[in-house]
Amino acid sequence: MEAGQANGNANGAHWILTVVLEPPDARGIAFLDKEATTATTSFKYVYLPATKRVLEFTPVQGYDAFFATDFTYQDLGFVLLGGGGEKLVGTDTRDGKKVYKLEDHPINHPYYSKVISYVATDSLLPVERDFYDRAGNLYKTERCTIETVDGVPTITKIVMNNVNSGGSSEIDVTKVIRDKKMPADIFNPKHLPNIAEDPFWKTVTQP
After folding, report:
1. Which fold has domain 81-176?
2. Nearest Cα to 18, choosing from 78, 70, 68?
3. 18-61 pLDDT per residue, tens
4. Which residue, 59, 161, 165, 174, is the most exposed by fewest CB within 10 angstroms?
5. What's phi and psi for 163, nearest 5 deg?
6. d(Cα 37, Cα 53) in Å, to the nearest integer?
7. Would you kindly state where each structural domain of the chain is located, as residue ranges?
8. Is residue 206 scored above 70 in pLDDT?
């Protein structure tokens, strides 16, 4: 599956838009995550071509599987775990790199009782995130590969391992374009039904 993602600010909010471009039978599936700059909550919109409807997801629905993978819609947008607040509990090493170890106990979260994150001390990007279920058992582990792209540390691969099912899914970043000017309209939920045909994607996918 090939997807494009746009991340930017428009209309007083921060947005992350993910659109499936290939294969043809999945083209047009879109997920839009909105985080108001003055709020601590996010709004999630999903468009599925089969239903021809734009749906606004509730926080719980955001944890549904994305396209039958081990990633959820929440994993593709802003990571808001439920108000527990991450706390630094020490330092550790992952793959020979020094990392900060952060622990979060989300309040009234529907799925997670605890999330432990390992963040690189040099780039402040996550290299691993461990999710624990309500019973305190490890539920899934997310691992990120960080490489330098155009002189900037960048996450180029994300692997999600589902400990419960034994499944694993991977996101590979094949192209990164920084400071790209984006039309504000691509972040409008009303435009999701036709977003895969927006000319913007040709400007970032063609050589």
Report:
1. outer membrane lipoprotein receptor (LolB), chain A (2.50.20)
2. 78
3. 999 999 999 999 999 888 765 556 788 999 999 999 999 877 78
4. 174
5. -65, -35
6. 27
7. 1-79+178-207, 81-176
8. no
